Amino acid sequence: MKTTLALISALFCGTAMADTLYKCVDKAAETVLYTNQRVSGKQCSVVSSISSGSSFGPAPVARKASANPTPVDFPRVSNDAQKERDGGRRTILEQELASEQRNLDEAKKASNSNKAQLHERNIAALQKEIANLK
Fold first, then answer.
1. pLDDT band at 14 (very low <50, low <70, confident <90, very high)
2. Higher pLDDT residue, 25 or 62?
3. What are phi and psi of 75, to 5 degrees?
4. CB atoms within 10 A of CB 112
5. Residue 111 DSSP code
6. How far apart are CA 43 and CA 50, in angstroms?
7. I want to staple 107 with a disulfide (CB 3.0 to 4.6 A). Which of 35, 50, 111, 116 is the partner?
8. pLDDT tens-digit series, residues 89-117
9. Which residues contact 10 (CB under 8 A, 6 or more apart)?
10. Cα–Cα nearest to 105, from 113, 116, 118
11. Distance between CA 111 and CA 107 in Å, rounded?
């Protein structure tokens, strides 16, 4: 518990004032201390070092778009073919939605609330998916 509190304290308070977090071990007392300063008389090692002034760690590194270019022989789909595929997907989703609606009606007639809730969730998910189509 003490170690956890020391770590939390060091992460949220200490790194705002310093760029390095140390793990200091006192083998005689069998304790571990996380701090932003080396402690004399203890074995201290660097846990993290922050190069920016951020108190929550280094800034994320942005990827370059050209780091992984698309290969020249990568298969491409024409706009018309993609529109046809999207239309087919919409048709399938609408058929699934109609099927789920029938299943919901049947579950309500049978007074099966568990199945009815399942079909209602499926209907909501299908409606969301259809709304996200281009």
1. very low
2. 25
3. -65, 140
4. 13
5. T
6. 21
7. 116
8. 999 999 999 999 999 999 999 999 899 99
9. 21, 34, 35, 36
10. 116
11. 6
Q: Where are the domains of the chain?
A: 2-49, 79-131
Six token digits for residue 72: 């020249």
Among the listed residues 17, 3, 93, the one whose alpha carbon sits nearest the alpha carbon of residue 55: 17
121-134 pLDDT, tens digit per residue, is 999 999 999 998 86
User: Which residue matches tokens 């709304």?
Assistant: 131
| CA gap 23, 29 in Å, rounded | 15
> What tokens were used for 81?
């073919």
Containing 91, the helix (H) or strand (E) segment is: helix 79-109
> Counting every residue, how long is the chain?
134
Structure tokens at 10: 């060091």
Report the Cα 121 to chain-centroid distance in Å: 23
Which is higher by pLDDT, 61 or 121? 121
